[in-house]
Amino acid sequence: METAATGQVGHDDRRTLGEVGETLVARYFRERGAQVLERNWQRIEGELDLIVREPAGAVVAVEVKTRRGLGFGEPLEAVTPAKQARLRRLLGLWLREHPDVGAGDVRLDVVGVLIRPGAPVHLRHLTGVGG
Predict the structure, then answer these.
(1) What is the pLDDT of residue 15?
(2) Domains: count for the chain
(3) Residue 65's domain is classified under what CATH number?
(4) Quick check: is 89 in a domain?
(5) Which domain holds residue 18?
(6) Burial of 86 (0-12, 13-18, 19+ CB in 10 A)
(7) Which residue stretches of the chain have pLDDT < 70?
């Protein structure tokens, strides 16, 4: 799924680019009725950017990749199969730490965020990655 988000992000934003992207993606999911359960969950093994529960009940770990341009390729290209496997293991750890969440559908999504000066923010959302 691809979407152009409304608004623009200026260079004077004091948050890091990654934080800006995560905030935009959290809003993107909320606007679709999802509940953000956690942001920036960290363990020694790594970090999950967002964990959301969709209206139908699915628990989704969301990896957010944010770029200002395409000089290093599409943002989504940074999420290699090895990284996908690590994110899936992290999601398993998160679920074990949160047994109250339930045993419904679980998946990994990746959202690429492209923030170019003077242009609308562009989100590209891939669902069910590496599964």
Answers:
(1) 56
(2) 1
(3) 3.40.1350.10
(4) yes
(5) 2-126
(6) middle
(7) 1-15, 71, 103, 131
DSSP designation for 14: -
Q: Is residue 93 domain-resident?
A: yes
pLDDT, position 14: 39
- Answer yes or no: is 12 within a domain: yes
Q: Provide the β-strand partners of residue 48.
A: 41
Buried b (16+ CB within 10 A) or exposed e, 87-123: bbebbeebbeeeeeeeeeebbbbbbbbbbeeeeebeb
Amino acid at 42: Q
> Is 131 part of any domain?
no
Asked if 68 and 112 count as a contact pair (C-beta separation under 8 A), the reply is: no
Q: How many residues does this entry show for the chain?
A: 131
